[in-house]
Design brief:
By secondary structure, the protein is an alpha+beta fold. The protein contains 10 helices and 9 strands.
């Protein structure tokens, strides 16, 4: 990220600051809240298999993570530490499920390279992100700026698709109720595995 930052001019940084301020204003308190019923959904995983939330919670709690895509270094770091904590999650019968707007082939490529065993689902219509109150769109000037540094969001999401989720983690119990959550418009902050484990202990 430091290398990326060195490529930005003052005008570029002004565009980024303006876009960040606009998103923070639009999403002051993103995401559903603790105690809310988690909206059910059915999405396909990277192999084309349908995964339904209401079926998943019958097996145990779900750690549901929304992430932006393989292009995002903060997302990659978060997925890495979550993967390292899978055995801890399993002690409480919990399964990690991730959701991204990127195309399935990108997810296959990403997860194969990293060796991740957990589910990655593609929200290609943004319906789930919207129902969880996490959806926002990148402004055209920010997309253009990213392309300047060879960061092409549409190459991951598909042509004309500039929607992303606010990165979020939700702990959903077997009744389908959100028991803990973390969603911040500041994409560099994420729910730590230790906090996830503490939430699972309380179920």
């Amino acid at each position: 990220m430091k290398a990326m930052g060195a490529k930005f001019t003052d005008a570029d940084r002004a565009i980024m600051k303006k876009a960040g301020a606009k998103m923070s204003e639009q999403l002051k308190n993103p995401g559903l809240k603790i105690g809310d019923k988690a909206p059910d959904f059915s999405l396909k995983d990277a192999q084309g298999n349908a995964v339904k939330l209401s079926e998943q919670v019958k097996k145990g709690p779900v750690v549901l993570v929304f992430y932006r895509g393989a292009w995002c270094p903060y997302c990659n770091l978060h997925l890495k530490v979550l993967n390292e904590s899978l055995e801890e999650f399993k002690k409480y019968g919990a399964e990690l499920v991730t959701i991204t707007p990127q195309q399935p082939d990108r997810s296959v490529e990403q997860f194969k390279a990293a060796g991740y065993p957990f589910k990655v689902l593609s929200d290609l219509n943004y319906d789930v992100m919207k129902s969880y109150q996490l959806y926002f769109e990148l402004p055209p000037e920010l997309l253009t700026l990213y392309k300047k540094i060879d960061l092409d969001i549409e190459a991951y999401n598909g042509d004309g698709r500039n929607g992303l989720p606010v990165p979020a983690t939700l702990i959903i119990d077997q009744q389908g109720v959100i028991r803990a959550q973390h969603a911040e418009s500041d994409y560099s902050t994420r729910m730590e595995p230790a906090a996830i484990v503490e939430a699972l202990k309380k179920l």
